[in-house]
Automatic annotation (TrEMBL):
Record-linked Pfam families: GARS_A, GARS_N
UniProt KW keywords: ATP-binding, Ligase, Manganese, Metal-binding, Nucleotide-binding, Purine biosynthesis
PROSITE patterns: ATP_GRASP
Compositional bias annotation for Low complexity: 231-241
One GO process term, biological-process aspect: purine nucleobase biosynthetic process
Location of the region described as Disordered in the Swiss-Prot/TrEMBL record: 214-241
Lineage: Eukaryota, Metazoa, Chordata, Craniata, Vertebrata
GO molecular function annotation: ATP binding; metal ion binding; phosphoribosylamine-glycine ligase activity
Taxonomy, superkingdom: Eukaryota
Organism field: Pygoscelis papua (Gentoo penguin)
InterPro entries to which the protein is assigned, alphabetical: ATP-grasp, ATP_grasp_subdomain_1, PreATP-grasp_dom_sf, PRibGlycinamid_synth_ATP-grasp, PRibGlycinamide_synth, PRibGlycinamide_synth_N
Residue span, ATP-grasp domain: 111-190
Descriptive protein name: PUR2 protein
Gene that encodes the chain: Gart_1
Amino acid sequence: MADRVLVIGSGGREHALAWKLAQSPHVKHVFVAPGNAGTADNGKISNSAVLVSNHTIVTQFCKDHNIGLVLVGQEALLAAGIVDDLRAAGVRCFGPSAKAAQLASNTSFAKAFLDRHGIPTARWKAFTNPQEACSTDFPARVVRARGPAARKEVTIATSKEEACRAVQEIMQDRMFGEMVVIEELLQGEELSCLCFTDGVTVASMPPAQAHKRLLDGDQGPNTGGMGAYCPVPQVQQSSSS
């Protein structure tokens, strides 16, 4: 029997999820909360005004509308534990727990995890004091605000002065948070390798490359993403699974 599905989020990621879910014969209808113009009244897809920040209201919406599955794309909600709360209420939900979501939402947690398990990563330090943050001696620096809402607030600084300006914006002006992580800048190609897992089995997707800088030639400020493509020529494709 076809299920009703709720996708939580409002960006292109949620639009793509809803679009693909609607193609399945197992899906009767896809609600997107809050959604965007592309998911408004589009065949089997429609937007919902349910207050996604209130997990109790979302749970009740799922029960009232016979939602068979919830997919959460919004990172701040994952970090806030919406998956934990929905599952505790008996609602089937696809997404990481709040603890697991820290790998994406909390830069200092993720970097410490990599170090603890011997996974190669750029040198880094976390700071709560702006003067100490400006004293790092990496030749080139990546300045990251900490927290789910600020995860993509990243400055690629080629000088100590530029890094200090970014630190001041983040910490002294409290634009994005009260902690920064400063990393050594690694030069070269950057690829994303995403996987699906149920906690036991891992299924890998093909590697992809995203373009983060605003302007052509890797110029301009860093963004959440200006586009992506897959497959990538930097990785040889294998015919075997």
